[in-house]
TrEMBL record:
Domain IclR-ED: residue ranges: 68-219
Organism: Streptomyces hyderabadensis
Protein name per the record: Helix-turn-helix domain-containing protein
Transmembrane segments: none
Superkingdom of this protein's organism: Bacteria
InterPro entries for the chain: ArsR-like_HTH, GAF-like_dom_sf, HTH_MetabolicPath_Reg, Tscrpt_reg_IclR_C, Tscrpt_reg_IclR_N, WH-like_DNA-bd_sf, WH_DNA-bd_sf
């Protein structure tokens, strides 16, 4: 801590981060131990965060992240979109296909940024705001693949880090997508959609490279 920072705000933010990292919530005692402060301080922090709906406590007294964070989260999309645009533009122009950044929104995949190539005679029209189930389309399936536990060392070493689909969202269109990895609090994928019978071989690796670029921009 420096003279320019607020100890109370710092502790409150640490509470939110601790709660965000657990699915079952934390008790006042557990938070007290993790923060290294007494229970009275934790009670005050939780009471303040509850007033803003950023924290809720269940009947058992366990604190969890509150629904108020959703309002803050909606403002993240423009920031993520801005950070991703350079990599998406390069991807669209290189491949000659519509590039997109897709994030998780509940059980759906939500396209938050889309870039169409400038030099092609035709390409797939794909708009920001488009939604589809995570189980359909390359963008959603790439996200679901990233949720699976890592493969044991030596198992399936040549498996690609991208997903290919054909005709799942639009007849005659195929897609390739790779998940965003290593970005805390952001679950999504970067991909392309094109009118083709098959995805050209180099597209998978190029999409993975773009996903790494976007992830780096968001860290």
């Amino acid at each position: 801590m420096t003279a320019e920072t607020s100890q109370t705000l710092d502790r409150g933010l640490r509470v939110l981060k601790l709660l965000a990292d657990t699915d079952h919530g934390l008790t006042v005692t557990e938070l007290s131990h993790k923060l290294g402060v007494n229970r009275t301080v934790v009670y005050r922090l939780l009471a303040t965060l509850e007033q803003h709906a950023l924290v809720r406590r269940d009947l058992g007294g366990r604190a969890r992240v509150g629904l108020g964070v959703l309002g803050l989260g909606r403002q993240v999309h423009p920031l993520v979109r801005e950070a991703a645009m350079p990599a998406l533009r390069a991807l669209a122009e290189d491949i000659g296909a519509t590039a997109h950044l897709t994030l998780v929104d509940g059980a759906e995949a939500l396209a938050v940024a889309v870039v169409e190539p400038t030099w092609t005679d035709y390409h797939v029209a794909y708009r920001a705001g488009f939604r589809h189930p995570l189980e359909r389309g390359a963008a959603g399936k790439a996200i679901l693949a990233a949720r699976r536990p890592p493969r044991p060392s030596g198992e399936d070493p040549d498996a690609p880090g991208y997903t290919l689909t054909h005709g799942e969202l639009e007849a005659g269109a195929c897609g390739a997508a790779a998940p965003l990895l290593g970005v805390t609090g952001v679950e999504g994928s970067v991909g392309v959609v094109m009118l083709a019978d098959v995805v050209p071989e180099r597209v998978g690796e190029r999409v993975m490279h773009a996903a790494r670029e976007v992830a780096e921009a968001l860290r």
